[in-house]
Amino acid sequence: MTAKQRSTTQSESGSPAGEPVYLVIGYLRRPHGIHGEIIMDLHTDFPDRIKSGRQIFIGDKHRPETFGGVREHGDGVLVKFRGIETPEDVGRFRNQWVYVKASEVPPLPEGKYYQYEMIGLDVIDDGGNPLGKLEEILETGANDVYIVRDESGKEILLPAIPSVILDLDMGRRILKVHLLEGL
Predict the structure, then answer these.
(1) I want to staple 27 with a disulfide (CB 3.0 to 4.6 A). Which of 41, 112, 121, 147 is the partner?
(2) Superfamily for domain range 2-104
(3) Which of 79, 25, 26 is nearest to 53 (CA)?
(4) Sequence ranges of the chain with CATH classification 2.40.30.60
(5) Strand 122-125 and strand 174-177: pairing?
(6) Phi, psi (rounded to 5 degrees) for 90
(7) Tell me, which fold does domain 119-177 have in CATH?
(8) Are strands 76-81 and 37-42 parallel, antiparallel or unpaired?
(9) 82 phi and psi, to 5 degrees?
(10) DSSP state of 104
(11) pTM (two decimals)
């Protein structure tokens, strides 16, 4: 139902109407070797789009950079930025998020949505009772968990499994769910 893509929102990026301007594709860890490469953890369902020549944006200020080289490394990739040749120079990007513009992400097949598109959905139970808004999606490994918060601030954690997630109507921005015993 969803594809990973963490976003920055209005409060973080100044985008209009709370829509994301930038989406996370990775997280820079530490320099690697002596030629200005840095280890990047992947946070995208489209790692094939991370390639040399791609413009990206780094950190909270969304500093523009261009990949000069990309190669696989363990669970992530080693990236090199154009014009950066030393571990000391690339080290200034340590522990920062890597973004792309939201307008540059590929369209998904029908019935699939990016996580950022689902944030803010009105959530109702199978009886039509309002439960709150979808605030966040946690990736747990086995299945995602949807965090729903009502007006009073009460949270409900919903596993994103077929027996719980009954219907998603993006046109009306409504997510219909079945509450399991104990929720």
Answers:
(1) 41
(2) RimM (2.40.30.60)
(3) 79
(4) 2-104
(5) parallel
(6) -75, -20
(7) SH3 type barrels. (2.30.30)
(8) antiparallel
(9) -60, 130
(10) G
(11) 0.67
pLDDT digits (tens, 9 = 90+) for 5-24: 555 443 344 444 555 578 89
* 3-class secondary structure, 102: helix
DSSP one-letter code for 101 = E
Q: Under the phi-then-psi rule, with left for phi > 0, alpha for psi from -120 to 50, and beta for the rest, what region is 97?
A: beta
Query: 71-76: long-range contacts (C-beta < 8 A, 24 or more apart)?
Result: 73/32, 73/39, 74/39, 75/41, 75/42, 76/26, 76/29, 76/39, 76/40, 76/41, 76/42
Distance between CA 150 and CA 148 in Å, rounded? 7
Residues counted in the chain? 183
pLDDT in tens, 119-166: 999 999 999 999 999 999 988 878 999 999 999 999 999 999 999 999
The H-or-E segment that residue 107 falls in is none
Residues 22-63 have pLDDT tens digits of 889 999 999 999 999 999 999 888 888 899 999 999 999 999
* Encoded tokens for 137: 């999606």
Structure tokens at 151: 């007006």
